[in-house]
Amino acid sequence: MSRFLFTNARIFDGAGRAAFSGHVLVSGNRIETVGEGAPGPAGADTEIIDCAGATVMPGLVESHAHLSWPSSLGRVINAMILPPEEHLLVTARNARITLDAGFTSAYSAGSLGERFEIALREEINGGWIPGPRLRASSLERLPEGALGQKAKPGVEHERGPQAMRAYVKKMASAGVDSIKFQLSSDDAFVPGGSKMLTYTEDEVAAMGTQARESGVYLSCHAQAAEAIKMAVRHGFRALYHCSHADEEALDMLEARKDRIFVAPAVGLLYSRIHEAESFGITRQVAQDMGAVSGLERMQSLYPKMRKRGIRVLPGGDYGFPYNPIGRNARDLQLFVELFGYTPVEALVAATKLGGELMGRGELIGLLKPGYLADLLVVEGDPTVDVRILQEPERLKMIMKNGAFHARQPVSEPFTAA
């Protein structure tokens, strides 16, 4: 059994307390000890790793993962649909890049292949390819024409409560962990689409009933206020965007904050506004797509959610050409700069709350005895400046399940706080 003792470290344990000088002992795939100050004598079978004052922290959790969205750092693909053989290989590469960025877990917000993520999850779990722990999702189901695009005909787009139950049952049987529905449209596809509902109350109720019977999670693209309320009423677990939430919707989210997670996907809107001109999305186009007004609403809305204690998580719809996978840690910066989070609050959202979203809050998201050994060694102090998590050269070590995915020595001495 491998044993590693990380010493001379600044420890951020994910729980929200201030970073402290200490050590972490990993035994096998579990954290055995997290302590302050210098450790006691290590056994002969323990490798001692001097962190030189670098920060040891839990691995990050991507709450809005789209591993099959093709574009990533170093390989921009200006298309969303590829031949299936190529697409699956790109998806596997994106899993590795997500882990390279320090995200040891990922909660999918939808796939572009019905079984892509099921196969990917099993390959990762088997140790055959590198990638984050994955909660695999279905396609993003929507009625025909809901996003202003003609969908392929067939059973997957049929309407009515029975069709909803049949779809959820089918996807659960296939092995997904979460099923994604588009409960509202989007301004990027239809003018005013973010306020348009795509399913009826009876249909959403049927989704919730069958999901509970089948033992799977539900997630949704929900921007319209009524879409948010339907999702809350019928047991959806992860709600994405929520950009038109009114006071009633906020009250409902707060009342169920122990069962619900929200992710704004702020990174996508930010990229559309500021970084997409070379892809034909000028400031005017971004405004026409609702990105400018959408970001303004988020800046007003999400500080209210934060004050209400609603669990809001980073996860920015990465995988578009102008918002590539691998840039995921920028969401933490945007939480601080746009939503008023402190660096520590943003880190807690990306670690502790992320573990809870994964349904493994007792094993993932904290540096705590008995937890799985998913951790990062970061040169510098992200509890002061979360931006350093976007610098690959600062991610000196990435450990998942007690095994190193990446490892290099700390290049500069730091004095632990």
Give the amount of beta strand, in percent.
15-25%
- Overall average pLDDT: 93
Strand/helix succession: EEEEEEHEHEEHEHEHEHEHHHHHHEEE
The count of β-strands is 16
- Count the DSSP helices: 12
Euclidean distance between termini CA atoms: 31 Å
Low-confidence stretches: 147-155
Structural class of the secondary structure composition?
alpha/beta
In which range does the helix fraction lie?
A: 25-40%
Rg, Å, rounded: 21 Å
Q: What's the shape?
A: globular
Described by strand count, sense and barrel closure, the largest sheet is: 8 strands, mixed
Characterise the protein shown here:
This protein has 417 residues and is α/β, with parallel strands linked by helices. Helices cover 31% and strands 21% of the residues. The protein is built from 12 helices and 16 strands. The protein has helices at residues 84-100, 116-125, 161-174, 201-214, 225-233, 247-255, 266-274, 283-288, 291-308, 330-339, 343-350, 352-357; strands spanning 3-11, 20-27, 30-36, 46-50, 55-58, 60-65, 103-108, 133-135, 137-141, 178-182, 217-222, 238-241, 261-263, 375-378, 395-400, 403-407. Strands 1, 2, 3, 4, 5, 14, 15 and 16 form an 8-stranded mixed beta sheet that branches. Helix 4 (201-214) links the parallel strand 10 and strand 11 (217-222). The longest helix is centred in the C-terminal third of the chain and has 18 residues, at 291-308. The protein is globular and about 65 Å long. The two termini are 31 Å apart.
